[in-house]
Amino acid sequence: MSAVIDTIETHLVDLPTIRPHKLSMTTMACQTLVIVRMRHSDGIEGLGEGTTIGGLSYGPESPESIKRNIDTYLAPLLIGQPSANINFLRARMNRHARGNAIAKSALETALLDAQGKRLGLSVAELLGGAQREHLPVLWTLASGDTRKDIDEAFQRLDDRRHCDFKLKIGANAVEDDVRHVAAIKAALGERASVRVDVNQAWDEATAVRGIAALQDAGIELIEQAIPAREFAGLVRLSQRFQVPMLADEAVQDARDGFTLAAGGFSGAYALKIAKSGGPCGALELAHVAQAAGIGLYGGTMLEGTLGTAASLHAWATLDTLAWGTEMFGPLLLKDDIVAEPLRYHEFGVELPKGPGLGITLDEDKLSHYRRKDG
Ligand code: MUC
Ligand code: MG
């Protein structure tokens, strides 16, 4: 008898960040993870994580909606179904529940973790095999203070932790943001690459002004300068400037990736398991990008260790990652709920060894940080 899904439990876990993390639309002092524990009739437990940024400030799912929608709508679609056919279960969720990509990603991750444990394979092996065991990881400077950001960058360089930096801008006047970014780039010089993420804060005219100045300052990549749905504007920016554009919020899944590429976009796509409903959907977007000659970047929704590990298993299967990854989420958190942290060294992180995700929960930490009324 093949295994079936028995129970699905969800927990909201609130973890403080090491410092305030300032984005154009919110400042985070804490990250909330939605942890999924999926138990199967063969005794195997699959773990998953669904995480967003700043409640409802990043997208239409909040941690509370992710939990509630899994409990009420998605879990009943999976319970009692055969555990092993992940393609069938993805299709079943997509047929009966619209949207909710982060909730679906948490469940798909738990399915992959369980299947890997069942077969004695890592998630990367289930996805066709890892092409790398160590992935480059950048760090986001987002304290909101230029001097503190420069000190933080030098510390990371000296520790050989990170040598690529992304700056979160868009909350201030464009001239102030440009001054902040240019000062950091000037301080770091050739020791580090500096990129910016505007998180949709500019209109196109502001973006033209801002990007011209950032290009002159030596910035290497401009992430999501204008609103996600302004595809034509993003295409125009990518054709106007030499500095490449990175589409993040604009490309949720393969269909967005196809539409933007067909519209004439060049540059790079940020892959995130949270945007695409899980590792499989994120890899579908990656394959569309590859076919269109668009560069790849392993993106984060500032997940904890489980979500970061799931992403790493997916990114490791890719041939090329022109812009590396930003899978630093666990390093932004003061504490963790796993028994063994990921190994960050030499400007990157090691792909965890399987089976499954290769991650074990620390039950005491989980019960400490779990929201008791959630
Ligand atoms: C985003 O939009 O890219 C990634 C790094 C970070 O600091 O925030 C995220 C979200
Ligand atoms: Mg982004």
UniProtKB/TrEMBL annotation:
SUPFAM superfamilies: Enolase C-terminal domain-like (SSF51604), Enolase N-terminal domain-like (SSF54826). Coiled coil: none annotated. It comes from the Bacteria. Pathway: Aromatic compound metabolism. One of its GO terms (molecular function) is manganese ion binding. Gene3D superfamilies: Enolase-like C-terminal domain, Enolase-like, N-terminal domain. Its cofactor is Mn(2+). InterPro entries: Chloromuconate_cycloisomerase (IPR013370), Enolase-like_C_sf (IPR036849), Enolase-like_N (IPR029017), Enolase_C-like (IPR029065), Mandel_Rmase/mucon_lact_enz_CS (IPR018110), Mandelate_racemase_C (IPR013342), Mandelate_racemase_N_dom (IPR013341). It holds the Pfam family MR_MLE_C. One of its GO terms (biological process) is amino acid catabolic process. Residues 147-244 form the Mandelate racemase/muconate lactonizing enzyme C-terminal domain. The active site is at K168, E326. SMART domains: MR_MLE. CDD domains: MLE (cd03318). Keywords: Aromatic hydrocarbons catabolism, Isomerase, Manganese, Metal-binding. Belongs to the mandelate racemase/muconate lactonizing enzyme family. NCBIfam families: mucon_cyclo. This is Muconate cycloisomerase. It comes from Modicisalibacter xianhensis. The lineage of its organism: Bacteria, Pseudomonadati, Pseudomonadota, Gammaproteobacteria, Oceanospirillales.
